[in-house]
Write a structure and sequence with these properties.
25 strands, four-stranded antiparallel β-sheet, mainly beta, five-stranded antiparallel β-sheet, 7 helices, 400 residues
Protein backbone atom coordinates (compact mmCIF):
# COMPACT_ATOMS: atom_id res chain seq x y z
CA UNK A 1 0.00 0.00 0.00
CA UNK A 2 2.95 2.31 0.65
CA UNK A 3 3.64 2.17 -3.08
CA UNK A 4 0.15 3.45 -3.83
CA UNK A 5 0.62 6.38 -1.47
CA UNK A 6 3.94 7.29 -3.05
CA UNK A 7 2.52 7.01 -6.56
CA UNK A 8 -0.34 9.31 -5.61
CA UNK A 9 2.04 11.97 -4.31
CA UNK A 10 4.42 11.74 -7.26
CA UNK A 11 1.50 11.99 -9.70
CA UNK A 12 0.33 15.20 -8.08
CA UNK A 13 3.69 16.84 -7.54
CA UNK A 14 5.12 16.11 -10.98
CA UNK A 15 3.42 19.27 -12.26
CA UNK A 16 4.74 21.31 -9.37
CA UNK A 17 7.58 23.84 -9.44
CA UNK A 18 9.25 24.99 -6.24
CA UNK A 19 9.24 28.78 -6.38
CA UNK A 20 11.06 30.83 -3.74
CA UNK A 21 8.81 31.46 -0.73
CA UNK A 22 7.30 34.92 -0.74
CA UNK A 23 4.64 36.20 1.65
CA UNK A 24 4.08 39.43 -0.26
CA UNK A 25 1.23 38.57 -2.58
CA UNK A 26 1.14 41.13 -5.36
CA UNK A 27 -2.42 42.14 -6.23
CA UNK A 28 -2.96 41.89 -9.94
CA UNK A 29 -5.66 42.59 -12.44
CA UNK A 30 -6.07 39.97 -15.20
CA UNK A 31 -6.79 40.95 -18.78
CA UNK A 32 -9.44 38.21 -19.11
CA UNK A 33 -12.04 38.46 -16.38
CA UNK A 34 -14.23 35.78 -14.84
CA UNK A 35 -17.80 36.21 -16.04
CA UNK A 36 -20.11 37.47 -13.30
CA UNK A 37 -22.63 34.77 -12.40
CA UNK A 38 -26.10 36.12 -11.68
CA UNK A 39 -27.42 32.77 -10.48
CA UNK A 40 -26.10 30.08 -8.19
CA UNK A 41 -23.91 27.57 -9.99
CA UNK A 42 -25.06 23.96 -10.38
CA UNK A 43 -23.35 21.87 -7.70
CA UNK A 44 -22.49 18.17 -7.83
CA UNK A 45 -22.46 17.97 -3.99
CA UNK A 46 -19.49 15.62 -3.85
CA UNK A 47 -18.89 16.43 -0.19
CA UNK A 48 -21.84 14.20 0.75
CA UNK A 49 -20.23 10.76 0.99
CA UNK A 50 -22.59 9.35 3.62
CA UNK A 51 -23.64 6.49 1.33
CA UNK A 52 -20.22 5.70 -0.11
CA UNK A 53 -19.54 2.05 -0.96
CA UNK A 54 -16.51 -0.15 -1.53
CA UNK A 55 -18.30 -2.10 -4.27
CA UNK A 56 -17.31 -0.05 -7.32
CA UNK A 57 -16.92 -3.01 -9.69
CA UNK A 58 -20.00 -4.84 -8.39
CA UNK A 59 -22.35 -1.81 -8.52
CA UNK A 60 -21.00 0.43 -11.26
CA UNK A 61 -19.24 -1.71 -13.88
CA UNK A 62 -21.09 -4.04 -16.25
CA UNK A 63 -18.17 -5.16 -18.41
CA UNK A 64 -14.41 -5.55 -18.03
CA UNK A 65 -12.06 -6.05 -21.00
CA UNK A 66 -8.39 -6.91 -20.47
CA UNK A 67 -5.92 -6.32 -23.31
CA UNK A 68 -2.39 -7.77 -22.89
CA UNK A 69 0.15 -5.62 -24.73
CA UNK A 70 2.47 -7.44 -27.09
CA UNK A 71 6.05 -7.92 -25.86
CA UNK A 72 7.62 -6.40 -28.95
CA UNK A 73 11.35 -5.62 -29.04
CA UNK A 74 10.53 -1.99 -29.89
CA UNK A 75 7.83 -1.68 -27.22
CA UNK A 76 9.29 -2.50 -23.81
CA UNK A 77 7.12 -0.59 -21.31
CA UNK A 78 8.42 0.00 -17.80
CA UNK A 79 5.44 1.91 -16.42
CA UNK A 80 2.21 3.34 -17.78
CA UNK A 81 1.79 7.11 -17.42
CA UNK A 82 -1.30 7.42 -19.59
CA UNK A 83 -3.65 5.27 -21.69
CA UNK A 84 -6.21 6.57 -24.16
CA UNK A 85 -8.23 5.21 -27.07
CA UNK A 86 -7.55 7.29 -30.20
CA UNK A 87 -9.14 6.39 -33.55
CA UNK A 88 -9.76 2.83 -32.32
CA UNK A 89 -6.13 2.40 -31.30
CA UNK A 90 -4.50 2.29 -27.87
CA UNK A 91 -2.18 5.18 -27.09
CA UNK A 92 0.13 4.11 -24.24
CA UNK A 93 2.57 6.59 -22.68
CA UNK A 94 5.60 5.61 -20.60
CA UNK A 95 6.99 9.01 -19.59
CA UNK A 96 9.27 7.69 -16.85
CA UNK A 97 11.17 4.55 -17.82
CA UNK A 98 11.02 4.00 -21.59
CA UNK A 99 10.19 7.70 -22.14
CA UNK A 100 8.27 6.84 -25.27
CA UNK A 101 4.74 6.90 -26.65
CA UNK A 102 3.48 3.61 -28.09
CA UNK A 103 0.52 2.77 -30.33
CA UNK A 104 -1.17 -0.66 -30.21
CA UNK A 105 -4.28 -1.98 -31.89
CA UNK A 106 -7.29 -2.92 -29.74
CA UNK A 107 -6.02 -6.52 -29.46
CA UNK A 108 -2.73 -5.32 -27.99
CA UNK A 109 -0.55 -5.79 -31.07
CA UNK A 110 2.27 -3.23 -31.30
CA UNK A 111 2.01 -0.87 -34.27
CA UNK A 112 4.59 1.91 -33.85
CA UNK A 113 5.90 4.69 -31.63
CA UNK A 114 5.11 8.40 -31.80
CA UNK A 115 8.02 10.79 -31.89
CA UNK A 116 11.29 9.85 -30.26
CA UNK A 117 13.73 10.90 -27.59
CA UNK A 118 16.77 12.83 -28.75
CA UNK A 119 18.24 16.22 -29.56
CA UNK A 120 16.83 16.50 -33.09
CA UNK A 121 14.37 19.21 -34.14
CA UNK A 122 11.44 16.78 -34.22
CA UNK A 123 12.45 14.92 -31.04
CA UNK A 124 11.88 15.50 -27.33
CA UNK A 125 14.22 15.15 -24.35
CA UNK A 126 11.42 14.65 -21.82
CA UNK A 127 7.70 13.85 -21.87
CA UNK A 128 6.08 16.20 -19.36
CA UNK A 129 2.60 16.40 -20.85
CA UNK A 130 0.69 14.36 -23.41
CA UNK A 131 -2.70 15.68 -24.50
CA UNK A 132 -4.96 14.28 -27.19
CA UNK A 133 -6.39 17.40 -28.78
CA UNK A 134 -8.70 17.85 -31.79
CA UNK A 135 -5.53 18.46 -33.82
CA UNK A 136 -3.49 15.48 -32.69
CA UNK A 137 -1.29 14.09 -29.94
CA UNK A 138 0.55 16.95 -28.29
CA UNK A 139 3.79 16.53 -26.31
CA UNK A 140 5.29 19.17 -24.02
CA UNK A 141 9.04 19.00 -23.32
CA UNK A 142 10.02 21.17 -20.33
CA UNK A 143 13.76 20.67 -20.77
CA UNK A 144 13.81 22.03 -24.32
CA UNK A 145 10.75 24.32 -24.03
CA UNK A 146 9.33 22.47 -27.00
CA UNK A 147 5.76 21.69 -28.09
CA UNK A 148 5.21 18.91 -30.66
CA UNK A 149 2.02 17.58 -32.24
CA UNK A 150 1.69 14.27 -34.12
CA UNK A 151 -1.16 12.34 -35.67
CA UNK A 152 -1.95 8.81 -34.48
CA UNK A 153 0.20 7.39 -37.31
CA UNK A 154 3.24 9.23 -35.95
CA UNK A 155 3.43 11.97 -38.58
CA UNK A 156 4.53 15.37 -37.22
CA UNK A 157 1.81 17.96 -37.78
CA UNK A 158 3.49 20.96 -36.23
CA UNK A 159 6.08 22.00 -33.67
CA UNK A 160 6.96 25.11 -31.72
CA UNK A 161 10.13 26.06 -29.90
CA UNK A 162 9.47 28.51 -27.05
CA UNK A 163 12.20 31.03 -26.25
CA UNK A 164 11.32 31.62 -22.61
CA UNK A 165 10.44 29.47 -19.63
CA UNK A 166 7.12 27.75 -20.24
CA UNK A 167 4.06 26.96 -18.10
CA UNK A 168 3.67 23.51 -16.59
CA UNK A 169 0.76 22.67 -18.92
CA UNK A 170 0.11 24.07 -22.39
CA UNK A 171 -2.74 23.83 -24.91
CA UNK A 172 -2.56 25.20 -28.44
CA UNK A 173 -5.33 27.79 -28.58
CA UNK A 174 -5.26 28.47 -32.32
CA UNK A 175 -2.73 28.68 -35.13
CA UNK A 176 -0.69 31.39 -33.40
CA UNK A 177 -1.68 31.26 -29.71
CA UNK A 178 -1.09 29.00 -26.70
CA UNK A 179 -2.75 28.90 -23.29
CA UNK A 180 -0.77 27.72 -20.29
CA UNK A 181 -1.50 26.73 -16.69
CA UNK A 182 1.03 27.65 -13.99
CA UNK A 183 1.79 25.67 -10.85
CA UNK A 184 2.30 28.28 -8.17
CA UNK A 185 2.71 31.93 -7.29
CA UNK A 186 5.62 33.82 -8.80
CA UNK A 187 5.87 37.64 -8.54
CA UNK A 188 6.79 37.74 -12.25
CA UNK A 189 3.75 35.67 -13.15
CA UNK A 190 1.01 35.68 -10.51
CA UNK A 191 -1.69 34.01 -12.66
CA UNK A 192 -3.10 30.54 -13.06
CA UNK A 193 -3.58 31.10 -16.79
CA UNK A 194 -1.57 32.97 -19.41
CA UNK A 195 -1.95 33.29 -23.18
CA UNK A 196 1.10 33.63 -25.44
CA UNK A 197 1.58 33.96 -29.16
CA UNK A 198 4.07 32.00 -31.24
CA UNK A 199 6.58 34.84 -30.80
CA UNK A 200 6.49 34.27 -27.02
CA UNK A 201 4.77 37.59 -26.33
CA UNK A 202 2.37 37.57 -23.36
CA UNK A 203 -1.11 38.33 -24.70
CA UNK A 204 -3.58 37.75 -21.85
CA UNK A 205 -3.75 36.67 -18.23
CA UNK A 206 -6.50 35.14 -16.11
CA UNK A 207 -7.38 33.88 -12.63
CA UNK A 208 -4.86 35.52 -10.26
CA UNK A 209 -3.24 33.13 -7.78
CA UNK A 210 -4.48 33.95 -4.29
CA UNK A 211 -1.72 32.42 -2.13
CA UNK A 212 2.06 32.35 -2.27
CA UNK A 213 2.62 28.62 -1.88
CA UNK A 214 3.63 26.43 -4.79
CA UNK A 215 0.92 24.04 -5.91
CA UNK A 216 0.12 21.50 -8.62
CA UNK A 217 -0.61 23.14 -11.95
CA UNK A 218 -4.28 23.45 -12.74
CA UNK A 219 -5.80 21.06 -15.24
CA UNK A 220 -6.66 22.14 -18.79
CA UNK A 221 -9.01 19.66 -20.40
CA UNK A 222 -11.06 19.29 -23.58
CA UNK A 223 -14.75 18.63 -22.99
CA UNK A 224 -16.84 16.47 -25.34
CA UNK A 225 -18.35 19.59 -26.89
CA UNK A 226 -14.85 20.82 -27.88
CA UNK A 227 -14.63 23.57 -25.27
CA UNK A 228 -11.65 23.90 -22.92
CA UNK A 229 -12.19 23.42 -19.19
CA UNK A 230 -9.93 24.54 -16.36
CA UNK A 231 -9.85 23.56 -12.68
CA UNK A 232 -7.29 23.29 -9.90
CA UNK A 233 -6.97 21.56 -6.56
CA UNK A 234 -7.72 24.47 -4.22
CA UNK A 235 -10.85 25.57 -6.04
CA UNK A 236 -14.32 24.08 -6.16
CA UNK A 237 -15.32 25.59 -9.49
CA UNK A 238 -14.85 24.18 -12.99
CA UNK A 239 -14.41 26.96 -15.56
CA UNK A 240 -14.96 27.07 -19.31
CA UNK A 241 -12.36 29.09 -21.19
CA UNK A 242 -13.31 31.22 -24.20
CA UNK A 243 -11.30 33.83 -26.10
CA UNK A 244 -13.21 36.60 -24.31
CA UNK A 245 -14.17 35.27 -20.88
CA UNK A 246 -13.59 32.69 -18.19
CA UNK A 247 -17.02 31.24 -17.43
CA UNK A 248 -17.83 29.37 -14.18
CA UNK A 249 -19.81 26.29 -15.25
CA UNK A 250 -20.41 24.27 -12.07
CA UNK A 251 -19.16 23.55 -8.58
CA UNK A 252 -18.00 20.12 -7.52
CA UNK A 253 -19.05 20.61 -3.91
CA UNK A 254 -15.88 18.94 -2.57
CA UNK A 255 -15.34 21.54 0.17
CA UNK A 256 -17.17 23.17 3.03
CA UNK A 257 -17.68 26.93 2.40
CA UNK A 258 -14.59 28.10 4.36
CA UNK A 259 -12.47 24.94 4.16
CA UNK A 260 -9.94 26.17 1.59
CA UNK A 261 -9.49 29.63 3.11
CA UNK A 262 -8.93 28.08 6.56
CA UNK A 263 -6.32 25.70 5.13
CA UNK A 264 -4.49 28.55 3.38
CA UNK A 265 -4.52 30.67 6.53
CA UNK A 266 -3.15 27.75 8.55
CA UNK A 267 -0.31 27.08 6.12
CA UNK A 268 0.49 30.67 5.12
CA UNK A 269 3.76 30.94 7.06
CA UNK A 270 4.98 27.42 6.27
CA UNK A 271 7.86 26.62 3.97
CA UNK A 272 6.95 24.82 0.77
CA UNK A 273 8.21 21.54 2.24
CA UNK A 274 6.08 21.95 5.37
CA UNK A 275 3.12 23.03 3.25
CA UNK A 276 3.26 19.91 1.09
CA UNK A 277 3.64 17.71 4.14
CA UNK A 278 0.44 19.28 5.47
CA UNK A 279 -1.30 18.90 2.10
CA UNK A 280 -0.48 15.19 1.86
CA UNK A 281 -0.84 14.21 5.52
CA UNK A 282 -2.16 10.65 5.27
CA UNK A 283 -2.94 10.32 8.98
CA UNK A 284 -5.54 13.07 9.13
CA UNK A 285 -7.03 14.52 6.00
CA UNK A 286 -7.05 18.30 5.93
CA UNK A 287 -8.28 18.97 2.42
CA UNK A 288 -8.81 17.39 -0.98
CA UNK A 289 -5.24 17.35 -2.27
CA UNK A 290 -5.91 15.97 -5.74
CA UNK A 291 -8.80 15.45 -8.13
CA UNK A 292 -9.16 14.63 -11.79
CA UNK A 293 -12.25 14.70 -14.01
CA UNK A 294 -12.89 12.13 -16.76
CA UNK A 295 -15.79 12.69 -19.14
CA UNK A 296 -17.70 9.83 -20.74
CA UNK A 297 -20.80 9.79 -22.90
CA UNK A 298 -23.24 9.45 -19.98
CA UNK A 299 -21.03 9.99 -16.93
CA UNK A 300 -18.36 12.10 -15.35
CA UNK A 301 -15.89 10.18 -13.20
CA UNK A 302 -14.12 12.14 -10.47
CA UNK A 303 -11.03 10.53 -8.97
CA UNK A 304 -10.00 12.38 -5.81
CA UNK A 305 -8.10 12.04 -2.58
CA UNK A 306 -8.77 13.37 0.90
CA UNK A 307 -6.69 11.43 3.41
CA UNK A 308 -7.17 8.95 4.87
CA UNK A 309 -9.29 7.99 1.83
CA UNK A 310 -9.14 8.07 -1.94
CA UNK A 311 -12.55 8.15 -3.63
CA UNK A 312 -14.25 7.65 -6.97
CA UNK A 313 -17.42 9.60 -7.67
CA UNK A 314 -19.53 8.65 -10.70
CA UNK A 315 -21.79 11.53 -11.74
CA UNK A 316 -24.72 10.64 -13.98
CA UNK A 317 -25.28 13.40 -16.55
CA UNK A 318 -28.98 12.62 -16.98
CA UNK A 319 -30.03 12.33 -13.33
CA UNK A 320 -27.55 14.90 -12.00
CA UNK A 321 -26.67 12.59 -9.09
CA UNK A 322 -23.37 11.12 -7.97
CA UNK A 323 -22.51 7.75 -6.44
CA UNK A 324 -19.43 7.50 -4.23
CA UNK A 325 -16.98 4.66 -3.86
CA UNK A 326 -13.99 4.27 -1.58
CA UNK A 327 -10.95 3.57 -3.74
CA UNK A 328 -8.39 3.25 -0.93
CA UNK A 329 -8.69 3.29 2.86
CA UNK A 330 -5.25 4.23 4.15
CA UNK A 331 -6.20 3.53 7.78
CA UNK A 332 -7.10 -0.09 7.02
CA UNK A 333 -4.41 -0.39 4.32
CA UNK A 334 -7.12 -1.61 1.95
CA UNK A 335 -7.25 -0.83 -1.77
CA UNK A 336 -10.58 -1.62 -3.43
CA UNK A 337 -9.83 -0.20 -6.90
CA UNK A 338 -6.12 -0.81 -7.60
CA UNK A 339 -5.94 1.20 -10.80
CA UNK A 340 -5.12 4.72 -11.90
CA UNK A 341 -7.89 5.98 -14.19
CA UNK A 342 -6.26 7.65 -17.19
CA UNK A 343 -9.07 8.61 -19.57
CA UNK A 344 -12.53 7.73 -20.86
CA UNK A 345 -13.82 6.75 -24.27
CA UNK A 346 -17.62 6.76 -24.53
CA UNK A 347 -18.37 5.19 -21.12
CA UNK A 348 -15.26 3.02 -21.00
CA UNK A 349 -12.66 3.89 -18.35
CA UNK A 350 -9.12 3.30 -19.63
CA UNK A 351 -6.63 2.02 -17.07
CA UNK A 352 -3.79 -0.46 -16.74
CA UNK A 353 -2.79 -3.46 -14.68
CA UNK A 354 0.86 -3.48 -13.67
CA UNK A 355 3.08 -4.10 -10.65
CA UNK A 356 0.73 -2.16 -8.37
CA UNK A 357 -1.89 -4.90 -8.62
CA UNK A 358 0.46 -7.63 -7.44
CA UNK A 359 2.68 -5.79 -4.99
CA UNK A 360 -0.09 -3.97 -3.09
CA UNK A 361 -2.94 -6.47 -2.90
CA UNK A 362 -3.10 -9.65 -0.89
CA UNK A 363 -4.52 -12.78 -2.48
CA UNK A 364 -8.07 -12.29 -1.21
CA UNK A 365 -8.19 -8.73 -2.58
CA UNK A 366 -6.91 -9.95 -5.94
CA UNK A 367 -9.58 -12.63 -6.06
CA UNK A 368 -12.29 -10.12 -5.13
CA UNK A 369 -11.45 -8.14 -8.25
CA UNK A 370 -11.14 -11.25 -10.41
CA UNK A 371 -14.69 -12.33 -9.52
CA UNK A 372 -15.93 -9.34 -11.52
CA UNK A 373 -14.24 -10.59 -14.70
CA UNK A 374 -16.78 -12.78 -16.50
CA UNK A 375 -14.30 -14.62 -18.73
CA UNK A 376 -12.39 -17.48 -17.12
CA UNK A 377 -9.75 -17.07 -19.84
CA UNK A 378 -9.15 -13.46 -18.81
CA UNK A 379 -9.11 -14.37 -15.11
CA UNK A 380 -6.37 -16.91 -15.80
CA UNK A 381 -4.50 -14.29 -17.83
CA UNK A 382 -4.34 -12.06 -14.77
CA UNK A 383 -3.43 -14.89 -12.38
CA UNK A 384 -0.53 -15.95 -14.60
CA UNK A 385 0.61 -12.43 -15.42
CA UNK A 386 4.43 -12.24 -15.22
CA UNK A 387 5.26 -8.75 -13.97
CA UNK A 388 8.99 -9.23 -14.55
CA UNK A 389 8.82 -10.22 -18.20
CA UNK A 390 5.52 -8.93 -19.58
CA UNK A 391 4.22 -5.60 -20.77
CA UNK A 392 1.30 -4.24 -18.69
CA UNK A 393 -2.28 -5.33 -19.30
CA UNK A 394 -4.64 -2.54 -20.37
CA UNK A 395 -7.92 -2.62 -18.45
CA UNK A 396 -11.16 -1.19 -19.81
CA UNK A 397 -14.16 -0.84 -17.47
CA UNK A 398 -17.60 -0.05 -18.91
CA UNK A 399 -19.93 1.90 -16.65
CA UNK A 400 -23.57 0.88 -16.31
Amino acid sequence: MKGILILSIVFILCSCNEHPKSHNLIKTRPTIEVEHTKHQLPCWKLKDRSKSSTDFFENQVDSIVLIPLENHKDAIIGSVSHVEIVENKLLVVDANKAQQIFVFDMQGNFLHTIGGKGEGPDEYTSINQVVVSPEGICILDWFRWKFLCFDIDGKLRYKHQFKNNIPELIFRWDEHQYIGSHAGYNPQNPYHLTWRNDKDSLLNTGLPIMNTQSAPAGKLQYAHDGSILFYHTLCDTVYQITDKQIIPKWRLGLYEPDEVSAFLAKTKEMSNKEYHQQLFDFKKGTIVNHFTLHEGKSHWVIDYQQPPYAYIAVFDKESGKAKHYVKTDFNKMECYVPFVFNSMSEDWICSSLDQMFYTQLNESMQERFLRNIKSEEQREMVRKFDIENKNPIICLFHLK
